[in-house]
Design brief:
Number of strands: 4
Largest sheet: 2 strands, antiparallel
Strand order of the largest sheet: 1-2
Helix content: 25-40%
Distance between the termini: 49 Å
Strand content: 25-35%
Amino acid sequence: MGKRYGKLIPAIRAALGQSDGSIIAKLAARGELLKLDVEGQTIELAPEALLIETTAAEGFACAEDAGYLVGLDGIDG
């Protein structure tokens, strides 16, 4: 991405940080482009240009595969 967007990289990172991560993940899972407005330009990012990582909420164990996310709570029984 650096060669293509160069100086826009910090603004793209900021736009991604302000975006809804679940929507970005859904678009990527469907193979759709993510469109961002960055400094007056529309930037289109293909799923392979994105690194999507999931983390478990406190008290949960989570796993993701093939577009599915499973969460288990840590309640002792």
